[in-house]
Amino acid sequence: MGKGRVEAFTDGVAAIIITIMVLDLKVPEGEDFYALLPQWPIFLCYVLSFINVGIYWNNLHNMFHTVQRVDGGVLWANLHLLFWLSLMPVTTAFMGENHFARVPVAVYGLDLALCAAAYAILVTALHRLHGQDSAFARALGSDFKGRASLAAYIAAIPLAFVNQWISVAIYVLVALVWLVPDTRFARVIEK
Amino acid sequence: MGKGRVEAFTDGVAAIIITIMVLDLKVPEGEDFYALLPQWPIFLCYVLSFINVGIYWNNLHNMFHTVQRVDGGVLWANLHLLFWLSLMPVTTAFMGENHFARVPVAVYGLDLALCAAAYAILVTALHRLHGQDSAFARALGSDFKGRASLAAYIAAIPLAFVNQWISVAIYVLVALVWLVPDTRFARVIEK
Amino acid sequence: MGKGRVEAFTDGVAAIIITIMVLDLKVPEGEDFYALLPQWPIFLCYVLSFINVGIYWNNLHNMFHTVQRVDGGVLWANLHLLFWLSLMPVTTAFMGENHFARVPVAVYGLDLALCAAAYAILVTALHRLHGQDSAFARALGSDFKGRASLAAYIAAIPLAFVNQWISVAIYVLVALVWLVPDTRFARVIEK
Amino acid sequence: MGKGRVEAFTDGVAAIIITIMVLDLKVPEGEDFYALLPQWPIFLCYVLSFINVGIYWNNLHNMFHTVQRVDGGVLWANLHLLFWLSLMPVTTAFMGENHFARVPVAVYGLDLALCAAAYAILVTALHRLHGQDSAFARALGSDFKGRASLAAYIAAIPLAFVNQWISVAIYVLVALVWLVPDTRFARVIEK
Q: Which of C160, C186, C162, C184 lies closest to C171 in space, CA to CA?
């Protein structure tokens, strides 16, 4: 089964998720600067989620590049990841509209953890399909960054009830770590 | 007429339908766990419809893979299927917001039945175009699963007025049957 | 300049327009059959506009198939057509929510007339680029159907103030005429 | 890294932005001509933003045509541009619903300035990757138009507080200048 249409569908869904998040940026009521003030937490959440979806799209882009083929399992593992990503607009708005309250911050972390877990499942499905000695397996290595992100997100969920700003700091830090380009797949592509 | 752009348009519409369904997951009002409670039926409906649209996309993906060409009839049969699929966000929300009441459950079944009927029409249009001896016809076989799903959905509509949970169970069961990958087209592709 | 990305962008915009129209099908308030009743005019408008956008996508699909190249003028003529098509969700909802009142029916006709005029401009831009003897020009012929549709839509605007059902009948009739597949481009493609 | 999927993702996001802007054109309340009157400023803003997003898509289309390859930096520079473009629906609606009040007009200019700055960053990232002697660098030249647009948008922000119509005139003028097709990249493509 060719990977072309899976890539196209994934790009389509990612493009739509990243754009419909902006629908939760409501038009400010009023026409002066004070009307913009209550929008700041929502805007910051939008920035964070835009970067997170961008990171996933970027990683999927690079990963599928080293992939030779897909099967039904990979296809559903990919749809499973897109499912949790598709909840990001609503969890983002929940966190923003409640000005980083504890429960919404924990729910946002839960969604990020489920995305990271779904990503790990997709990686495993591709690994099984391509085998230990494939270019894909070599590029992936031990996937420390992926597993560490998942652990950080899981830790952030209960920490939100201690102090939600610890959790928010974790979300920002993990995003920054991923913004540094993932050179693993790039190195294999260049060879 | 090439099949490439029909595939691209179908992928685009499926990607948008699957993502705009999330717009009906309203941001919970309130910032504690109790605010999330009334969202559960809506969330479960979203999961079910996400899987249903995923199944259709998956099946269309595999089916068009064995197809050699399309004509105007196929194109409109495909648009007809996309029409009933495009109603899934609104029928999903109708069922979720009314906590699986009888009429909304029946309406959701009607939409599923119309999707299944439109899929059967598309299959017939492709069958006529490619002939009895084509790779497409051999891959399709008797299409028992497709016809059985249609019958199950039609039965679920009146059953919703006996007990709506019977109908919901039918929707879940049919989805589970399709989640098992359709090996018919895959077998032909591998040959 | 290659035509591939213009096709892809056009498909994308058409796929989005055809799907966001469904956002105006509000979830019925109430859980019985009576809740569905006020939705009927909106639903019928949605069906009509779905078919209209489907016809445009179908025609653009066939037309770009016989086209060799595009330039800046074609690109903007295409965006101009997409602009008027993008207004179809809002004019559709305006007509449906007001149960086919005169002004909304006239406004819907105005949008259809502007789409048809934009289509004529796009055809002219492609004609100028490819010349009289091109496969495109031969396929197009005199474009009687396009010009007659434009005339019918322009006539429907004032007729809405005589009796709006005359205009609605015109919209349905023109759509039915186009649903009969346009064999002009198909004939050239087959040769 | 191939440029194909970056183009596809960019086209997807641009197609979605250009279409969801129409969601802010609310269905008029009432069924006569007076119901349409308050929609005019919103409609005019929609026209302006549709043209602006169209110009960016057109420019990105032409620019990526002369590009040989992309890297992680280009990918994120492109996402950065898409981020500010994705705010255009909300800044457009803010300006339209407040009938071109000063603060919304300034905010719209800020968004346009940030888009233009992001475009300049993307151009720089592509320039660095391809080198001084590349077809890309020759096509780009001094990029006077890009830098002049950025300067005009920056000037328009404070000018909105003197008289907002000066700023609106600047937005319209810059759009008209770009509507004249950018022959730089076209010239290189033809050679």
A: C160
pLDDT value at position B104?
A: 95
CB C58 within 8 A of CB B75: yes
SS3 content of chain C, % helix, strand, coil (to 5): 80, 0, 20
Q: What pLDDT is stored for residue D2 in this prediction? A: 66
Of D2, D20, D79, the CB nearest to A54: D79
CB of C104 within 8 Å of a chain D CB? The answer is: yes
C180: burial class by Cβ within 10 Å (0-12, 13-18, 19+)? exposed
Residues in chain C with CB shorter than 8 Å from the CB of D31 are 98, 101-104
Contacts of D14 (CB under 8 A, 6+ apart): C9, D53, D56, D57, D60, D82, D85
Distance, in Å, from the CA atom of D188 to the CA atom of D191, rounded to the nearest integer, reads 5
Please write the tens of the pLDDT for every residue from B48-67.
999 999 988 888 877 887 88
Hey, is B126 helix, strand or coil?
helix
Which residue type sits at A115?
C
CA angle B113, B115, B119 (to 5 degrees): 115
Q: In angstroms, what CA-CA distances link D126 with A59, B48, D119?
A: 21, 44, 11
Q: Compute how many other C-beta atoms are within 10 angstroms of the C-beta atom of residue C43.
A: 14
Q: Of C16, C73, C101, which is closest to D16 when you measure between CB atoms?
A: C16
Q: How confident is the model at residue A156 (pLDDT cuts 50, 70, 90)?
A: very high
> Chain B partners of A73 at a C-beta cutoff of 8 Å?
181
pTM: 0.86
Chains B and C form CB pairs within 8 A to the count of 77
Distant-in-sequence, close-in-space partners of C30: CB < 8 Å, separation ≥ 6: none
pLDDT of the residue at D187: 52
Q: Is pLDDT at D95 greater than 90 in this prediction?
A: yes
Confidence of residue C114 (pLDDT cuts 50, 70, 90): very high
- D148 pLDDT band (50/70/90 cuts)? very high
pLDDT, tens only, D56-75: 888 887 788 788 788 878 88
Q: Is D9 exposed, middle or buried (CB count within 10 Å of its CB: 0-12, 13-18, 19+)? A: buried
Q: Note the pLDDT of residue A191.
A: 44
The H-assigned helical ranges of chain A are: 4-20, 40-66, 72-86, 88-97, 102-130, 135-140, 144-162, 164-179, 183-190
d(CA C18, CA B79): 10
Comparing C-alpha atoms, which of A85, C29, A86, A95 is closest to residue B36?
A95
Does the CB of C39 have a partner CB in chain B at under 8 Å? no
CA distance A91 to C161: 48
The reply to whether residue C18 touches residue B20, judged by beta carbons under 8 angstroms, is no
The DSSP secondary structure of A102-152, one letter per residue, reads HHHHHHHHHHHHHHHHHHHHHHHHHHHHH-TTSHHHHHHTT-HHHHHHHHH
Read off the pLDDT of each residue in C13-30 and give the average, rounded to a whole number: 82
B176/A contact by beta carbon, under 8 A: no
Higher-pLDDT residue of C26, D113 = D113
- Range with the poorest average pLDDT among A68-72, A99-103, D156-160, D186-190: D186-190
Contacts of residue A121, Cβ cutoff 8 Å, sequence gap at least 6 = A77, A80, A81
Neighbours of B116 (CB within 10 A): 23
Place of tokens 């197809």: B67
Q: Which residue has the higher pLDDT, A137 or A164?
A: A164
- To the nearest whole Å, the CA of D116 is away from the closest chain C CA by 21
Interface contact D87-A18, CB threshold 8 A: no
Q: What percent of chain C has pLDDT over 90?
A: 41
Contact across the interface for D186 and C94, Cβ inside 8 Å: no
| Residue A191 token pair | 């060879």
